[in-house]
């Protein structure tokens, strides 16, 4: 069970009115496209406009379905910002062919981000290559790849946003496991060129999370929210919950990134089969309301 | 799928002979009773003797089935050490009744450990109370409970062993998530009274793991091994793999605890439905062989 409570249209005694389009509280709210996984760029863009979101977080695959230029125009004409492009990364291959393919793919992702008008390319750095137990080696290869990609991104006006992943994903998805570690990898580069993603789902457990968010001042490239809900589902990739359904204290995290000077968009990114199956308008309305009740003051 | 490869009796071309009872390489090897979950204390003890293990890690529930005195006698008569008793803890209740009940239960666990002749009581400290998002508060309550329990344990000659749990279990099982954090909670007490558990499954992902193991010198109360196997099963509690089936570099961790001066038993603790369903003699033989090939030099 997912813990998703799409409390539209039934509401609850404690429910607040759903914020309407034009509500200034929604100005920084961004819908990451993955939250409405069945929708293409056009449909997701319309949904954001219909519900008053200020921005959208795009994914490369649905963008590729209609072409980068068309996607860029759709979002621009809708008056939305592109808060980020997901995702580059997967930079841990140990063989030369894998390494070259990954760098080429990331160069394309940088170009796509620039064409879409976002300065933020989220990097999920990749897990251990099949059969490998060399975690330190994989982490080093991420740093090595960054040395190649940062100048390319800087030329394109794109900031690479390192996303520390929950340690549950260390083996197969992302060997950067903490904010502290991600900041260390970013440190050799200007903050304008390499930032970090603060995703509540990935960092909420970290005893050093608030301290590291303070240290990240100037480097926070994206702030993403979704909740930790137990028990985890069979596919742990799809365990993310709607804000308010789980164990994360979003308000404290939002205040921490505020205090670190972050004033960019706040992306709601929910990988969850029940959310994906639900009516997108109900999802968007719930996201807007929970954003107001759980994330803002 | 669990990734378990019980390569007895088929073996593989690369298989080494199974170490036999009396093999000095097995002197520090301990079978945590949970690895053969269907067996009672008597059967698990016999199994350890049959396969030449030097010690056994006991759990309170199967001990209670036959009584602490009888369990102690069985293990002593078999010539085995009790490497640890699992487990006390669950100290995060926010209400007075829950807190009192937890302290009482831990006092009983301390008495049981002493009666069983082990100086190590493993503490799984507990997750967030239902409905709570106050992670810092839960962590503080662990520290507060420890202040009550440490003198009780010290009087009984028992060392409390704080087990940092993988962050995947932070919400519902253990709010101590790293070695560093556990060492900070242990710091006010003598190392002889409060130690930490190094369980490869819980700490392998931590960028600071080796550094913190070095810092833990003198405080390492237990070293436990089992592997991280992806994908995780539907019940993430049962995802632990046989050493060699996953992504963990055991030899490096064993060398690190060696270098930190740990010379106690090395416990194999595998929560895994397939391992539990297998023939216990095949499990014990595989554990002994994998211990030699994956953990020792």
Automatic annotation (TrEMBL), chains A, B:
It comes from the Bacteria. InterPro entries: IolE/XylAMocC-like (IPR050312), Xyl_isomerase-like_sf (IPR036237), Xyl_isomerase-like_TIM-brl (IPR013022). Residues 46-281 form the Xylose isomerase-like TIM barrel domain. Keywords: Isomerase. GO terms for molecular function: isomerase activity. SUPFAM superfamilies: Xylose isomerase-like. It holds the Pfam family AP_endonuc_2. Residues 1-24 are annotated as: Disordered. Transmembrane segments: none annotated. PANTHER family: HYDROXYPYRUVATE ISOMERASE, XYLOSE ISOMERASE. This is Xylose isomerase. It comes from Actinocatenispora rupis. The lineage of its organism: Bacteria, Bacillati, Actinomycetota, Actinomycetes, Micromonosporales.
């Amino acid at each position: 069970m997912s813990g998703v409570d799409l409390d539209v249209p039934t509401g609850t005694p404690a429910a607040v009115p759903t914020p309407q389009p034009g509500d200034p509280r929604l100005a920084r709210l961004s819908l990451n496209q993955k939250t409405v996984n069945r929708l293409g760029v056009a449909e997701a863009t319309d949904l954001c406009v219909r519900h008053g979101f200020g921005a959208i977080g795009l994914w490369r695959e649905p963008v590729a379905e209609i072409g980068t230029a068309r996607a860029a125009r759709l979002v621009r004409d809708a008056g939305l910002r592109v808060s980020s492009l997901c995702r580059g990364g997967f930079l841990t291959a140990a063989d030369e062919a894998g390494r070259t393919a990954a760098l080429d793919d990331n160069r394309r992702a940088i170009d796509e981000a620039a064409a879409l008008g976002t300065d933020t390319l989220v990097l999920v750095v990749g897990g251990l290559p099949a059969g490998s137990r060399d975690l330190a080696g994989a982490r080093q290869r991420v740093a090595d790849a960054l040395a190649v990609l940062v100048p390319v991104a800087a030329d394109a006006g794109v900031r690479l946003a390192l996303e520390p992943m929950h340690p549950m994903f260390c083996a197969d998805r992302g060997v950067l496991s903490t904010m502290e570690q991600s900041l260390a990898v970013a440190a050799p580069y200007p903050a304008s060129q390499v930032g970090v993603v603060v995703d509540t789902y990935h960092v909420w457990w970290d005893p050093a999370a608030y301290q590291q968010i303070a240290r990240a001042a100037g480097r926070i490239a994206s702030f993403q929210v979704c909740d930790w809900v137990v028990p985890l589902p069979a596919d742990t990739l799809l365990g993310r919950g709607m804000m308010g359904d789980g164990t994360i204290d979003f308000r404290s995290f939002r205040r921490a990134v505020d205090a670190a000077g972050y004033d960019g968009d706040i992306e709601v990114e929910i990988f969850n089969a029940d959310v994906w199956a639900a009516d997108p308008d109900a999802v968007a309305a719930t996201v807007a309301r929970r954003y107001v009740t759980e994330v803002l003051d």
